[in-house]
Amino acid sequence: MTNVVTAPHHTDAGNATELDALVIGAGFAGLYQLLCLRDRLGLSVKALEAADGVGGTWYWNRYPGARCDSESHVYWYTFSPELMREWEWSERYPGQAEILRYLNFAADKFDLKRDIQFNTRVTAAHYDAAANRWRVRTDTGENFSARFLITAVGCLSTANVPNIPGLQDFKGDWYHTGQWPHDGVDFTGKRVGMIGTGSTAIQAAPVIAAQAKHLTVFQRTANYSVPARNVPLTPEFKQYVKQNAAEIRALTHQTYNGMAFKVSEVKAVDTPSEEREKIYEQAWERGGLQFRASFQDMLVSQEANNTAADFIKRKIRSIVKDPETAAILSDIDHPYAAKRPPIDTDYFETFNRANVSLVNVKAAPIECISETGIRTTDAEYPVDIIVFATGFDAMTGPLLRMDIRGRDGVALKEVWEEGPRNYLGLQVAGFPNLFTITGPGSPSVLCNMPVAIEQHVDWITDCIRHMRAQGLERIEARPEAVEKWVVEVNEAAHRTLLPRATHSWYLGANIPGKPRVFMPYAGGLVRYREICQTVAAEGYEGFTLS
Ligand code: NA7
Question: Which of 63, 69, 50 has the alpha carbon at shortest distance from 97?
Fold first, then answer.
Protein backbone atom coordinates (compact mmCIF):
# COMPACT_ATOMS: atom_id res chain seq x y z
CA MET A 1 0.00 0.00 0.00
CA THR A 2 1.76 3.17 -1.11
CA ASN A 3 -0.98 5.72 -0.73
CA VAL A 4 0.31 7.45 2.37
CA VAL A 5 -1.97 9.87 4.14
CA THR A 6 -0.38 10.42 7.48
CA ALA A 7 -2.89 11.85 9.88
CA PRO A 8 -1.81 13.00 13.29
CA HIS A 9 -2.58 10.44 15.93
CA HIS A 10 -5.57 11.62 17.85
CA THR A 11 -4.48 9.77 20.85
CA ASP A 12 -1.99 10.88 23.36
CA ALA A 13 -0.45 7.66 24.54
CA GLY A 14 0.21 9.25 27.93
CA ASN A 15 -3.41 9.44 28.98
CA ALA A 16 -4.86 6.49 27.13
CA THR A 17 -6.41 3.53 28.88
CA GLU A 18 -4.17 0.60 28.00
CA LEU A 19 -5.86 -2.70 27.19
CA ASP A 20 -5.04 -6.00 25.57
CA ALA A 21 -8.17 -5.77 23.46
CA LEU A 22 -10.97 -3.34 22.74
CA VAL A 23 -14.36 -4.40 21.43
CA ILE A 24 -16.61 -1.88 19.69
CA GLY A 25 -20.30 -2.57 20.30
CA ALA A 26 -22.35 -4.45 22.87
CA GLY A 27 -24.93 -6.32 20.84
CA PHE A 28 -24.99 -10.06 20.25
CA ALA A 29 -21.44 -10.00 18.85
CA GLY A 30 -19.80 -7.58 21.25
CA LEU A 31 -21.12 -9.28 24.38
CA TYR A 32 -19.89 -12.70 23.35
CA GLN A 33 -16.53 -11.38 22.18
CA LEU A 34 -16.03 -9.57 25.48
CA LEU A 35 -16.84 -12.74 27.40
CA CYS A 36 -14.43 -14.86 25.35
CA LEU A 37 -11.48 -12.50 25.60
CA ARG A 38 -11.97 -11.71 29.26
CA ASP A 39 -13.08 -15.03 30.74
CA ARG A 40 -11.53 -17.57 28.40
CA LEU A 41 -8.27 -15.85 27.51
CA GLY A 42 -7.87 -13.68 30.59
CA LEU A 43 -7.16 -10.51 28.60
CA SER A 44 -7.70 -6.99 29.85
CA VAL A 45 -10.57 -5.94 27.63
CA LYS A 46 -13.33 -3.38 27.44
CA ALA A 47 -16.29 -2.88 25.17
CA LEU A 48 -17.33 0.60 24.12
CA GLU A 49 -20.99 1.10 23.26
CA ALA A 50 -22.75 4.19 21.91
CA ALA A 51 -26.09 3.33 23.52
CA ASP A 52 -26.84 3.45 27.23
CA GLY A 53 -27.56 -0.27 27.32
CA VAL A 54 -26.66 -3.54 25.66
CA GLY A 55 -28.56 -4.94 22.66
CA GLY A 56 -27.18 -3.37 19.47
CA THR A 57 -29.81 -3.71 16.75
CA TRP A 58 -32.38 -4.64 19.36
CA TYR A 59 -31.59 -1.60 21.43
CA TRP A 60 -32.24 0.81 18.54
CA ASN A 61 -34.97 -0.84 16.48
CA ARG A 62 -37.97 -0.30 18.77
CA TYR A 63 -40.43 0.53 16.01
CA PRO A 64 -43.98 -0.88 16.23
CA GLY A 65 -44.02 -4.56 15.33
CA ALA A 66 -40.22 -5.03 15.57
CA ARG A 67 -39.62 -8.73 15.71
CA CYS A 68 -36.97 -11.19 14.61
CA ASP A 69 -37.51 -13.23 11.43
CA SER A 70 -35.48 -16.15 12.79
CA GLU A 71 -37.42 -18.50 15.02
CA SER A 72 -36.69 -18.10 18.70
CA HIS A 73 -35.25 -21.57 19.26
CA VAL A 74 -32.35 -20.68 16.95
CA TYR A 75 -32.04 -17.00 17.82
CA TRP A 76 -29.85 -17.11 20.88
CA TYR A 77 -26.41 -17.92 22.15
CA THR A 78 -25.50 -21.57 22.10
CA PHE A 79 -22.07 -21.38 23.74
CA SER A 80 -23.50 -22.01 27.20
CA PRO A 81 -25.77 -25.01 27.80
CA GLU A 82 -26.61 -23.47 31.17
CA LEU A 83 -27.83 -20.25 29.57
CA MET A 84 -29.91 -22.30 27.14
CA ARG A 85 -31.50 -24.15 30.05
CA GLU A 86 -32.22 -20.98 31.98
CA TRP A 87 -33.84 -18.98 29.20
CA GLU A 88 -37.26 -19.65 27.72
CA TRP A 89 -38.72 -17.79 24.75
CA SER A 90 -42.44 -17.06 24.70
CA GLU A 91 -43.23 -16.86 20.98
CA ARG A 92 -42.30 -18.54 17.72
CA TYR A 93 -40.47 -15.34 16.68
CA PRO A 94 -39.01 -13.26 19.49
CA GLY A 95 -40.16 -9.66 19.67
CA GLN A 96 -37.75 -6.75 20.14
CA ALA A 97 -38.50 -6.25 23.84
CA GLU A 98 -38.02 -9.92 24.64
CA ILE A 99 -34.70 -10.11 22.77
CA LEU A 100 -33.50 -7.05 24.65
CA ARG A 101 -34.47 -8.73 27.94
CA TYR A 102 -32.59 -11.82 26.81
CA LEU A 103 -29.40 -9.92 25.99
CA ASN A 104 -29.57 -8.14 29.34
CA PHE A 105 -30.11 -11.48 31.03
CA ALA A 106 -27.04 -12.94 29.31
CA ALA A 107 -24.94 -9.85 30.04
CA ASP A 108 -25.92 -9.97 33.72
CA LYS A 109 -25.44 -13.71 34.04
CA PHE A 110 -21.84 -13.40 32.84
CA ASP A 111 -21.28 -10.10 34.62
CA LEU A 112 -20.32 -8.36 31.39
CA LYS A 113 -21.64 -4.86 32.04
CA ARG A 114 -18.80 -3.96 34.41
CA ASP A 115 -16.48 -4.03 31.39
CA ILE A 116 -18.73 -2.12 29.01
CA GLN A 117 -18.49 1.63 28.81
CA PHE A 118 -21.88 2.88 27.62
CA ASN A 119 -22.73 6.24 26.03
CA THR A 120 -19.39 6.12 24.26
CA ARG A 121 -19.07 6.14 20.49
CA VAL A 122 -15.77 5.36 18.83
CA THR A 123 -14.91 8.12 16.40
CA ALA A 124 -11.41 7.09 15.34
CA ALA A 125 -9.08 4.12 15.50
CA HIS A 126 -5.53 4.51 14.19
CA TYR A 127 -2.94 1.79 14.01
CA ASP A 128 0.40 2.73 15.52
CA ALA A 129 2.86 0.43 13.77
CA ALA A 130 5.84 1.27 15.98
CA ALA A 131 4.00 0.24 19.12
CA ASN A 132 1.83 -2.35 17.34
CA ARG A 133 -1.23 -0.93 19.06
CA TRP A 134 -4.54 0.56 18.06
CA ARG A 135 -5.08 4.11 19.29
CA VAL A 136 -8.78 4.66 19.72
CA ARG A 137 -10.64 7.87 20.34
CA THR A 138 -14.23 8.37 21.43
CA ASP A 139 -16.85 11.10 21.20
CA THR A 140 -16.42 11.59 24.93
CA GLY A 141 -12.84 12.67 24.25
CA GLU A 142 -11.29 9.59 25.83
CA ASN A 143 -8.34 7.65 24.49
CA PHE A 144 -7.76 3.93 24.54
CA SER A 145 -4.84 1.88 23.37
CA ALA A 146 -5.18 -1.81 22.62
CA ARG A 147 -3.21 -4.55 20.90
CA PHE A 148 -6.33 -6.03 19.34
CA LEU A 149 -9.31 -4.10 18.04
CA ILE A 150 -12.51 -5.98 17.30
CA THR A 151 -15.49 -4.34 15.68
CA ALA A 152 -18.86 -5.73 16.70
CA VAL A 153 -20.79 -2.87 15.18
CA GLY A 154 -23.55 -4.82 13.42
CA CYS A 155 -24.42 -4.88 9.74
CA LEU A 156 -27.55 -2.75 9.91
CA SER A 157 -26.80 -0.02 12.38
CA THR A 158 -26.24 3.10 10.31
CA ALA A 159 -29.70 4.49 9.62
CA ASN A 160 -30.37 5.75 6.11
CA VAL A 161 -32.57 8.84 6.12
CA PRO A 162 -32.85 9.76 2.44
CA ASN A 163 -31.92 13.25 1.52
CA ILE A 164 -35.37 14.45 0.46
CA PRO A 165 -35.57 18.22 0.03
CA GLY A 166 -37.74 20.04 2.54
CA LEU A 167 -37.50 17.66 5.50
CA GLN A 168 -36.07 20.41 7.68
CA ASP A 169 -39.22 22.48 7.09
CA PHE A 170 -41.67 19.70 7.96
CA LYS A 171 -43.91 20.90 10.80
CA GLY A 172 -44.90 17.44 11.98
CA ASP A 173 -42.75 14.77 13.62
CA TRP A 174 -40.55 12.31 11.79
CA TYR A 175 -38.71 9.18 12.85
CA HIS A 176 -36.40 6.59 11.37
CA THR A 177 -37.37 3.08 12.44
CA GLY A 178 -33.80 2.27 13.44
CA GLN A 179 -33.63 5.19 15.89
CA TRP A 180 -37.03 4.84 17.44
CA PRO A 181 -37.93 6.82 20.61
CA HIS A 182 -37.78 4.67 23.73
CA ASP A 183 -41.15 5.81 25.01
CA GLY A 184 -42.82 5.01 21.69
CA VAL A 185 -44.84 7.19 19.34
CA ASP A 186 -48.54 7.78 19.81
CA PHE A 187 -50.22 7.56 16.40
CA THR A 188 -53.74 8.03 17.75
CA GLY A 189 -55.70 10.40 15.55
CA LYS A 190 -52.66 11.04 13.32
CA ARG A 191 -52.17 10.87 9.57
CA VAL A 192 -49.02 8.87 9.08
CA GLY A 193 -46.86 8.62 5.96
CA MET A 194 -44.46 5.70 5.91
CA ILE A 195 -41.70 5.59 3.31
CA GLY A 196 -40.40 2.14 2.42
CA THR A 197 -41.63 -1.41 1.97
CA GLY A 198 -38.71 -3.49 3.26
CA SER A 199 -38.87 -5.98 6.16
CA THR A 200 -39.22 -3.15 8.66
CA ALA A 201 -42.13 -1.38 6.97
CA ILE A 202 -43.84 -4.70 6.39
CA GLN A 203 -43.72 -5.38 10.14
CA ALA A 204 -44.66 -1.84 11.15
CA ALA A 205 -47.54 -1.09 8.75
CA PRO A 206 -50.20 -3.35 10.34
CA VAL A 207 -49.38 -2.11 13.85
CA ILE A 208 -49.36 1.57 12.90
CA ALA A 209 -52.55 1.18 10.85
CA ALA A 210 -54.35 -0.26 13.86
CA GLN A 211 -53.72 2.94 15.79
CA ALA A 212 -53.42 5.80 13.31
CA LYS A 213 -56.22 7.80 11.80
CA HIS A 214 -54.75 7.10 8.39
CA LEU A 215 -51.62 5.38 7.11
CA THR A 216 -50.22 6.11 3.68
CA VAL A 217 -47.48 3.72 2.55
CA PHE A 218 -45.07 5.09 -0.06
CA GLN A 219 -43.79 2.16 -2.11
CA ARG A 220 -40.85 2.50 -4.48
CA THR A 221 -40.05 -1.17 -5.04
CA ALA A 222 -42.80 -3.74 -4.57
CA ASN A 223 -41.76 -6.58 -2.30
CA TYR A 224 -42.60 -10.19 -1.65
CA SER A 225 -43.68 -11.28 1.78
CA VAL A 226 -44.74 -14.59 3.27
CA PRO A 227 -46.84 -14.91 6.45
CA ALA A 228 -44.75 -15.36 9.60
CA ARG A 229 -47.54 -17.18 11.45
CA ASN A 230 -46.24 -16.06 14.80
CA VAL A 231 -47.79 -17.85 17.79
CA PRO A 232 -47.11 -18.21 21.51
CA LEU A 233 -44.98 -21.30 22.11
CA THR A 234 -46.72 -24.26 23.69
CA PRO A 235 -45.32 -25.89 26.85
CA GLU A 236 -44.60 -28.95 24.69
CA PHE A 237 -42.48 -26.99 22.25
CA LYS A 238 -40.58 -25.28 25.06
CA GLN A 239 -39.91 -28.70 26.52
CA TYR A 240 -38.77 -29.98 23.13
CA VAL A 241 -36.29 -27.11 22.84
CA LYS A 242 -34.88 -27.75 26.31
CA GLN A 243 -34.46 -31.45 25.65
CA ASN A 244 -32.99 -31.03 22.17
CA ALA A 245 -30.94 -27.87 22.48
CA ALA A 246 -27.71 -29.60 21.49
CA GLU A 247 -29.29 -31.27 18.43
CA ILE A 248 -30.89 -28.01 17.30
CA ARG A 249 -27.54 -26.29 17.65
CA ALA A 250 -25.85 -29.03 15.65
CA LEU A 251 -28.44 -28.66 12.90
CA THR A 252 -27.85 -24.91 12.63
CA HIS A 253 -24.21 -25.74 11.96
CA GLN A 254 -25.14 -27.98 9.05
CA THR A 255 -27.40 -25.68 7.09
CA TYR A 256 -26.67 -23.11 4.41
CA ASN A 257 -27.86 -20.18 6.51
CA GLY A 258 -27.65 -21.24 10.14
CA MET A 259 -31.33 -22.03 10.44
CA ALA A 260 -32.78 -25.26 11.82
CA PHE A 261 -34.32 -26.30 8.53
CA LYS A 262 -32.71 -27.84 5.49
CA VAL A 263 -33.28 -26.78 1.93
CA SER A 264 -35.37 -29.35 0.03
CA GLU A 265 -33.43 -31.59 -2.32
CA VAL A 266 -36.23 -31.43 -4.87
CA LYS A 267 -36.03 -29.06 -7.83
CA ALA A 268 -38.98 -26.84 -8.66
CA VAL A 269 -38.32 -27.25 -12.36
CA ASP A 270 -38.59 -31.04 -12.06
CA THR A 271 -41.82 -30.95 -10.06
CA PRO A 272 -45.18 -31.14 -11.83
CA SER A 273 -47.06 -27.88 -11.40
CA GLU A 274 -49.90 -29.32 -9.32
CA GLU A 275 -47.46 -30.91 -6.89
CA ARG A 276 -45.39 -27.73 -6.78
CA GLU A 277 -48.45 -25.69 -5.95
CA LYS A 278 -49.22 -28.04 -3.07
CA ILE A 279 -45.68 -27.65 -1.71
CA TYR A 280 -45.88 -23.86 -1.90
CA GLU A 281 -49.32 -23.89 -0.30
CA GLN A 282 -47.99 -25.95 2.63
CA ALA A 283 -44.99 -23.64 2.97
CA TRP A 284 -47.30 -20.61 2.92
CA GLU A 285 -49.45 -22.14 5.65
CA ARG A 286 -46.45 -23.09 7.77
CA GLY A 287 -45.09 -19.56 7.32
CA GLY A 288 -41.68 -18.04 7.82
CA LEU A 289 -38.35 -17.93 6.03
CA GLN A 290 -38.54 -21.65 5.42
CA PHE A 291 -40.63 -20.81 2.37
CA ARG A 292 -37.42 -20.16 0.46
CA ALA A 293 -36.22 -23.67 1.29
CA SER A 294 -39.18 -25.24 -0.55
CA PHE A 295 -37.03 -26.18 -3.54
CA GLN A 296 -33.34 -26.71 -4.04
CA ASP A 297 -33.11 -24.59 -7.19
CA MET A 298 -35.10 -21.57 -6.04
CA LEU A 299 -32.12 -19.27 -5.59
CA VAL A 300 -30.08 -20.48 -8.54
CA SER A 301 -32.54 -20.93 -11.40
CA GLN A 302 -34.64 -18.08 -12.73
CA GLU A 303 -37.16 -20.57 -14.04
CA ALA A 304 -37.51 -22.19 -10.62
CA ASN A 305 -37.66 -18.83 -8.92
CA ASN A 306 -40.44 -17.68 -11.24
CA THR A 307 -42.67 -20.43 -9.88
CA ALA A 308 -42.27 -19.10 -6.32
CA ALA A 309 -42.62 -15.51 -7.47
CA ASP A 310 -45.82 -16.28 -9.36
CA PHE A 311 -47.26 -18.11 -6.38
CA ILE A 312 -46.66 -15.18 -4.02
CA LYS A 313 -47.93 -12.61 -6.54
CA ARG A 314 -51.14 -14.61 -6.91
CA LYS A 315 -51.47 -14.70 -3.11
CA ILE A 316 -51.08 -10.92 -2.94
CA ARG A 317 -53.79 -10.45 -5.58
CA SER A 318 -56.10 -12.85 -3.75
CA ILE A 319 -55.64 -11.08 -0.39
CA VAL A 320 -55.81 -7.43 -1.46
CA LYS A 321 -59.36 -6.53 -2.47
CA ASP A 322 -58.79 -3.32 -4.41
CA PRO A 323 -57.45 -4.47 -7.81
CA GLU A 324 -55.41 -1.32 -8.40
CA THR A 325 -53.67 -1.60 -5.01
CA ALA A 326 -53.16 -5.33 -5.56
CA ALA A 327 -51.58 -4.62 -8.94
CA ILE A 328 -49.11 -2.11 -7.48
CA LEU A 329 -48.20 -4.42 -4.59
CA SER A 330 -47.64 -7.41 -6.83
CA ASP A 331 -45.72 -5.60 -9.55
CA ILE A 332 -42.44 -7.04 -8.27
CA ASP A 333 -39.38 -6.71 -10.48
CA HIS A 334 -36.79 -9.00 -8.88
CA PRO A 335 -36.48 -12.70 -8.12
CA TYR A 336 -37.99 -13.93 -4.87
CA ALA A 337 -35.44 -13.80 -2.01
CA ALA A 338 -32.87 -11.98 -4.13
CA LYS A 339 -33.57 -9.09 -1.80
CA ARG A 340 -33.89 -9.98 1.88
CA PRO A 341 -37.30 -11.77 1.95
CA PRO A 342 -39.63 -10.30 4.58
CA ILE A 343 -42.14 -12.28 6.60
CA ASP A 344 -45.22 -10.59 7.98
CA THR A 345 -48.31 -10.58 10.12
CA ASP A 346 -51.23 -9.31 8.03
CA TYR A 347 -49.19 -6.95 5.84
CA PHE A 348 -51.15 -7.36 2.63
CA GLU A 349 -54.42 -7.61 4.61
CA THR A 350 -53.65 -4.14 6.00
CA PHE A 351 -54.34 -2.64 2.58
CA ASN A 352 -57.98 -3.77 2.91
CA ARG A 353 -58.48 -1.36 5.80
CA ALA A 354 -60.37 1.83 5.06
CA ASN A 355 -57.68 3.91 6.78
CA VAL A 356 -54.75 2.64 4.69
CA SER A 357 -53.64 3.71 1.24
CA LEU A 358 -50.73 2.93 -1.02
CA VAL A 359 -48.81 5.39 -3.17
CA ASN A 360 -46.69 4.13 -6.03
CA VAL A 361 -43.61 6.34 -5.89
CA LYS A 362 -41.96 4.42 -8.66
CA ALA A 363 -44.56 5.83 -11.04
CA ALA A 364 -44.55 9.28 -9.44
CA PRO A 365 -41.40 9.75 -7.31
CA ILE A 366 -41.26 11.72 -4.09
CA GLU A 367 -40.23 15.23 -5.03
CA CYS A 368 -40.01 16.89 -1.66
CA ILE A 369 -41.38 17.15 1.82
CA SER A 370 -43.48 20.22 2.42
CA GLU A 371 -44.34 21.80 5.76
CA THR A 372 -47.43 19.63 5.94
CA GLY A 373 -46.82 16.48 3.98
CA ILE A 374 -45.10 14.45 1.30
CA ARG A 375 -45.21 15.68 -2.27
CA THR A 376 -44.77 13.38 -5.23
CA THR A 377 -44.54 14.50 -8.82
CA ASP A 378 -48.31 14.21 -9.15
CA ALA A 379 -49.91 14.87 -5.75
CA GLU A 380 -49.43 16.11 -2.20
CA TYR A 381 -50.24 13.84 0.75
CA PRO A 382 -50.85 15.72 4.00
CA VAL A 383 -49.40 13.87 7.01
CA ASP A 384 -48.75 14.61 10.69
CA ILE A 385 -45.99 12.04 11.14
CA ILE A 386 -43.44 10.63 8.69
CA VAL A 387 -41.94 7.22 9.39
CA PHE A 388 -38.75 6.53 7.47
CA ALA A 389 -38.58 2.74 7.11
CA THR A 390 -35.80 3.39 4.64
CA GLY A 391 -33.20 0.96 5.85
CA PHE A 392 -29.50 1.28 6.51
CA ASP A 393 -26.12 1.99 5.01
CA ALA A 394 -25.57 -1.72 5.42
CA MET A 395 -22.43 -3.65 6.30
CA THR A 396 -19.75 -1.09 5.40
CA GLY A 397 -21.64 1.94 6.80
CA PRO A 398 -21.04 1.21 10.49
CA LEU A 399 -17.31 0.67 9.86
CA LEU A 400 -16.75 3.60 7.56
CA ARG A 401 -18.41 6.14 9.79
CA MET A 402 -15.44 5.69 12.13
CA ASP A 403 -12.11 7.10 11.02
CA ILE A 404 -10.24 3.79 10.86
CA ARG A 405 -6.66 4.02 9.66
CA GLY A 406 -4.17 1.21 9.25
CA ARG A 407 -0.47 1.23 8.42
CA ASP A 408 0.96 4.58 7.32
CA GLY A 409 -2.29 6.34 8.19
CA VAL A 410 -4.14 4.85 5.23
CA ALA A 411 -7.89 5.19 5.76
CA LEU A 412 -10.25 2.23 5.44
CA LYS A 413 -12.46 4.59 3.42
CA GLU A 414 -9.77 4.81 0.76
CA VAL A 415 -9.02 1.11 0.71
CA TRP A 416 -12.74 0.42 0.30
CA GLU A 417 -13.44 3.24 -2.09
CA GLU A 418 -14.62 0.79 -4.74
CA GLY A 419 -16.24 -1.61 -2.31
CA PRO A 420 -15.16 -3.73 0.64
CA ARG A 421 -11.98 -5.75 0.21
CA ASN A 422 -10.87 -8.08 2.94
CA TYR A 423 -9.92 -11.65 3.75
CA LEU A 424 -12.71 -13.97 4.97
CA GLY A 425 -14.73 -10.91 5.98
CA LEU A 426 -12.46 -10.84 9.03
CA GLN A 427 -9.40 -8.76 8.26
CA VAL A 428 -8.26 -6.02 5.90
CA ALA A 429 -4.72 -6.01 4.50
CA GLY A 430 -2.79 -3.13 6.04
CA PHE A 431 -4.88 -3.17 9.23
CA PRO A 432 -3.07 -5.60 11.54
CA ASN A 433 -4.84 -6.99 14.60
CA LEU A 434 -8.17 -5.52 13.53
CA PHE A 435 -10.97 -8.06 13.29
CA THR A 436 -14.43 -7.27 11.89
CA ILE A 437 -17.16 -9.55 13.28
CA THR A 438 -19.73 -10.32 10.53
CA GLY A 439 -17.91 -7.94 8.24
CA PRO A 440 -18.67 -7.69 4.53
CA GLY A 441 -17.32 -10.77 2.74
CA SER A 442 -18.68 -13.09 5.44
CA PRO A 443 -22.04 -14.92 5.43
CA SER A 444 -23.47 -12.53 8.06
CA VAL A 445 -26.80 -11.11 6.87
CA LEU A 446 -27.55 -14.11 4.66
CA CYS A 447 -27.65 -16.17 7.85
CA ASN A 448 -29.28 -16.47 11.15
CA MET A 449 -27.06 -13.89 12.84
CA PRO A 450 -26.28 -15.46 16.24
CA VAL A 451 -24.89 -18.55 14.49
CA ALA A 452 -22.72 -16.45 12.18
CA ILE A 453 -21.61 -14.32 15.14
CA GLU A 454 -20.63 -17.26 17.34
CA GLN A 455 -18.61 -18.75 14.49
CA HIS A 456 -16.70 -15.49 13.99
CA VAL A 457 -16.13 -14.82 17.68
CA ASP A 458 -14.91 -18.37 18.28
CA TRP A 459 -12.52 -18.11 15.35
CA ILE A 460 -11.13 -14.75 16.48
CA THR A 461 -10.76 -16.00 20.06
CA ASP A 462 -8.94 -19.14 18.92
CA CYS A 463 -6.69 -17.03 16.73
CA ILE A 464 -5.70 -14.71 19.57
CA ARG A 465 -5.24 -17.71 21.88
CA HIS A 466 -2.93 -19.27 19.30
CA MET A 467 -0.94 -16.06 18.94
CA ARG A 468 -0.44 -15.75 22.67
CA ALA A 469 0.59 -19.36 22.99
CA GLN A 470 3.16 -18.87 20.24
CA GLY A 471 4.36 -15.51 21.51
CA LEU A 472 3.06 -13.78 18.35
CA GLU A 473 1.88 -10.20 18.49
CA ARG A 474 0.68 -9.29 15.04
CA ILE A 475 -1.64 -10.85 12.49
CA GLU A 476 -2.34 -9.29 9.16
CA ALA A 477 -4.19 -10.44 6.05
CA ARG A 478 -1.93 -10.79 3.01
CA PRO A 479 -2.89 -8.70 -0.03
CA GLU A 480 -2.92 -11.78 -2.31
CA ALA A 481 -5.29 -13.58 0.11
CA VAL A 482 -7.57 -10.55 -0.02
CA GLU A 483 -7.51 -10.57 -3.83
CA LYS A 484 -8.50 -14.22 -3.89
CA TRP A 485 -11.24 -13.78 -1.31
CA VAL A 486 -12.80 -10.85 -3.18
CA VAL A 487 -13.01 -13.10 -6.25
CA GLU A 488 -14.51 -15.94 -4.17
CA VAL A 489 -17.19 -13.61 -2.69
CA ASN A 490 -18.05 -12.30 -6.12
CA GLU A 491 -18.22 -15.75 -7.69
CA ALA A 492 -20.31 -17.15 -4.85
CA ALA A 493 -22.85 -14.35 -5.35
CA HIS A 494 -22.97 -14.91 -9.10
CA ARG A 495 -23.68 -18.59 -8.68
CA THR A 496 -27.04 -17.42 -7.27
CA LEU A 497 -29.79 -15.06 -8.39
CA LEU A 498 -28.99 -12.66 -5.55
CA PRO A 499 -27.19 -10.00 -7.62
CA ARG A 500 -30.22 -9.78 -9.93
CA ALA A 501 -32.06 -7.60 -7.43
CA THR A 502 -30.15 -4.59 -8.63
CA HIS A 503 -31.63 -2.23 -6.03
CA SER A 504 -30.88 -4.33 -2.95
CA TRP A 505 -28.90 -3.23 0.08
CA TYR A 506 -26.82 -6.40 -0.30
CA LEU A 507 -25.33 -4.53 -3.27
CA GLY A 508 -25.19 -1.15 -1.59
CA ALA A 509 -27.68 0.10 -4.17
CA ASN A 510 -29.93 1.81 -1.62
CA ILE A 511 -27.30 4.42 -0.79
CA PRO A 512 -26.60 7.04 -3.46
CA GLY A 513 -22.96 6.94 -4.52
CA LYS A 514 -22.17 3.68 -2.72
CA PRO A 515 -20.17 1.24 -4.87
CA ARG A 516 -22.27 -1.60 -6.28
CA VAL A 517 -20.56 -4.65 -4.86
CA PHE A 518 -22.35 -7.70 -3.54
CA MET A 519 -21.21 -7.58 0.08
CA PRO A 520 -22.15 -10.74 2.02
CA TYR A 521 -20.60 -14.12 1.25
CA ALA A 522 -23.25 -16.23 -0.48
CA GLY A 523 -21.38 -19.54 -0.43
CA GLY A 524 -23.21 -20.65 2.71
CA LEU A 525 -22.21 -20.95 6.34
CA VAL A 526 -21.16 -24.61 6.14
CA ARG A 527 -18.65 -23.99 3.38
CA TYR A 528 -17.50 -20.77 5.00
CA ARG A 529 -16.96 -22.45 8.38
CA GLU A 530 -14.88 -25.14 6.69
CA ILE A 531 -12.77 -22.55 4.90
CA CYS A 532 -12.11 -20.69 8.16
CA GLN A 533 -11.26 -23.93 9.97
CA THR A 534 -8.85 -24.98 7.25
CA VAL A 535 -7.17 -21.58 7.22
CA ALA A 536 -6.58 -21.84 10.99
CA ALA A 537 -5.50 -25.49 10.85
CA GLU A 538 -2.92 -24.65 8.20
CA GLY A 539 -1.23 -22.10 10.37
CA TYR A 540 -3.47 -19.18 9.43
CA GLU A 541 -2.86 -19.45 5.75
CA GLY A 542 -3.24 -16.12 3.98
CA PHE A 543 -2.22 -14.18 7.08
CA THR A 544 1.20 -13.00 8.15
CA LEU A 545 1.88 -13.60 11.81
CA SER A 546 4.82 -12.10 13.60
P1 NA7 B 1 -34.67 -2.08 3.51
O2 NA7 B 1 -34.91 -3.51 3.30
O3 NA7 B 1 -33.44 -1.47 2.96
O4 NA7 B 1 -35.94 -1.30 2.96
C5 NA7 B 1 -35.94 0.08 2.81
C6 NA7 B 1 -37.16 0.51 2.06
O7 NA7 B 1 -37.15 1.92 1.95
C8 NA7 B 1 -37.19 -0.05 0.65
O9 NA7 B 1 -38.51 -0.32 0.33
C10 NA7 B 1 -36.65 1.14 -0.16
O11 NA7 B 1 -37.06 1.13 -1.50
C12 NA7 B 1 -37.27 2.28 0.57
N13 NA7 B 1 -36.61 3.55 0.32
C14 NA7 B 1 -35.34 3.86 0.68
N15 NA7 B 1 -35.07 5.14 0.29
C16 NA7 B 1 -36.18 5.59 -0.33
C17 NA7 B 1 -36.51 6.81 -0.96
N18 NA7 B 1 -35.64 7.81 -1.02
N19 NA7 B 1 -37.74 6.94 -1.49
C20 NA7 B 1 -38.63 5.92 -1.43
N21 NA7 B 1 -38.37 4.75 -0.85
C22 NA7 B 1 -37.16 4.58 -0.31
O23 NA7 B 1 -34.66 -1.72 5.07
P24 NA7 B 1 -35.48 -2.39 6.25
O25 NA7 B 1 -35.24 -1.57 7.46
O26 NA7 B 1 -36.88 -2.66 5.85
O27 NA7 B 1 -34.83 -3.78 6.41
C28 NA7 B 1 -33.43 -3.88 6.63
C29 NA7 B 1 -33.09 -5.23 7.15
O30 NA7 B 1 -33.34 -5.30 8.55
C31 NA7 B 1 -33.91 -6.35 6.61
O32 NA7 B 1 -33.55 -6.72 5.35
C33 NA7 B 1 -33.69 -7.42 7.64
O34 NA7 B 1 -32.45 -8.04 7.43
C35 NA7 B 1 -33.65 -6.65 8.91
P36 NA7 B 1 -36.11 0.45 -2.65
O37 NA7 B 1 -36.25 -1.02 -2.43
O38 NA7 B 1 -34.71 0.93 -2.35
O39 NA7 B 1 -36.65 0.95 -3.91
Answer: 63
